Amino acid sequence: MRIVGLLLAFMFVGVQSFAEVFIAAGAGYKKPLETVSALYEKQSGKKVLRSYGNLQQVIEQAKQSGKIDAIFGDEKFIQKSKLSVKPAQLIGKGKLVLVASKSVELRSTKDLEKMNKIALPDAKKAIYGIAAMEFLKSANYAESLKDKLMFVATVPQVSTYLRQGSVEVGFINLTDYLANKEQFGEMIEIPQETYSPILIVVAPLQDSKSAELADFMAFLDSKEAKEVFKEYGLEK
């Protein structure tokens, strides 16, 4: 009987571990993912574990830990990572915006020439840093503004500098702006034709063992989840 009891206890622990989903996401999408995860947990009674960082860090975590079930972020970046994933599910289109600190006047992108400090995410590791550099090159600002550019790791770090007034303007995504707009000054949406398309997806890993992953992904495509994503600027 004791052996049977131990076996049942072991089986119960195993079932509990599979009643979870572990999602790793780009840091700029923390607010919407936190919101939809909380809704899912409330409705299903199941747990969604979350981890955030710049997407390259997130992908490395997925490769090394073996615990991540899906990646939430830019489709192209995930594809280039050579991470073994199943077909991705589209969440919405990512949009690049230029945002000013509260005390700074920003009327157009031409005002960039007046600024002393311009923050943007890492142009090698962060998708919105790449997009910002593509815009600056297309507008012929990349060379003239190069000494004013301050690169940081992630979109939320740019937002922190903007809120603190440590920089005058910064490039972030529309999602992060909408999540914190009361703390920012003016915002200008960058024309989408000036940078490569950004498709935000959730990509399930091939080796995921979570029995709940399919259910969670179905919820991400529900009316409730879509309303949350729309509120944060993510629409298909």
Report on the architecture of this protein.
- The protein is α/β, with parallel strands linked by helices.
- It folds into 2 domains: 109 residues, D-Maltodextrin-Binding Protein, domain 2 (3-Layer(aba) Sandwich); 99 residues, D-Maltodextrin-Binding Protein, domain 2, CATH 3.40.190.
- Helices cover 40% and strands 22% of the residues.
- It has a 5-stranded mixed beta sheet. Strands 7-6-8-5-9 form a 5-stranded mixed beta sheet, sandwiched between helices.
- Helix 5 links the parallel strand 6 and strand 7.
- The protein is globular.
- The N terminus is likely disordered.
The fraction of residues in strands falls at: 15-25%
Helix content: 40-55%
CATH fold type of the largest domain: D-Maltodextrin-Binding Protein, domain 2
Q: Report on the biggest sheet.
A: 5 strands, mixed
Whole-angstrom Rg: 20 Å
Task: Write the element-wise H/E pattern from the N-terminal end onward.
Answer: HEHEHEHEEEHEHEHEEHH
Report the span from N to C terminus.
56 Å
| Strand order in the largest sheet | 2-1-3-10-4
Q: State the CATH architecture of the largest domain.
A: 3-Layer(aba) Sandwich
Flag low-confidence runs: 1-18
Number of helices: 9
Indicate the multimeric state: single chain
Overall mean confidence score, pLDDT: 91
Q: Name the CATH superfamily classification of the largest domain.
A: Periplasmic binding protein-like II
Number of DSSP E strands: 10
CATH class of the largest domain: Alpha Beta
The secondary structure category is alpha/beta
